[in-house]
Cytokine-inducible SH2-containing protein
Amino acid sequence: MLLCLPRPPLPGPSSVMVSGRMRVPNDGSESDDRCNQLIPVQPITPQSWDPTEDLRCITTAFQHLHASGWYWGSISASEARDALSNMVEGTFLVRDSSHPHYMLTLSVKTARGPTNVRIEYSGGHFRLDSTSPARPRLLSFPTVPGLVQHYLGTGGKEKKERGNKGEEVPVALKDSAIVMKLRQPLHSPKNFPSLQHLTRLAINRHTDRPAQLPLPRLLLLYLQDYPFQV
């Protein structure tokens, strides 16, 4: 999956284009049945959303983030830039957003240096922030690892639907645009994943039905606690 975004590198006030169609501002899963659906963003009204669901969904999302190993917490934009500057293109991490209206930011190394994309939360789902007219068609996800997995293109369902079409390519690039590719996470030295978690990732990448594996119940529950491939 490709994300296309204009200059400058992090930090900066410019915007980002997702798949060549969506513009998103540049910032300098299996929890339960209700919080496990990939859906287009729909307007949330006070009558249709119970605020107590926010606590449950956000708690689950952060549990997954802490388990991932690539959530860096409250580092600054400049610290994220320093961490990514010597990495290969496509290396990414997730950190707390410095913007008061957002919880999280996706920081990614691009061909022109590190840059940021804010992650928006609304009604139990996360999505990349966007000011594009196509905003209502942006997919949202119940967890941040689910969002990242989608743009990495490693999700089982999305991968099967693409078949042999390969990577999605932006329709057009503007003069100052650069291509942002999510390829690999940068693990935090303070939160490096355990051997057990790395084994869980390997299992998740090789089967989409871990519950059917001939494993003890406690191991099956451990797999279900983090049903992602990244």
Summary: The mean pLDDT is 75. Helices lie at 51-68, 77-84, 144-152, 156-162, 195-206, 217-224.
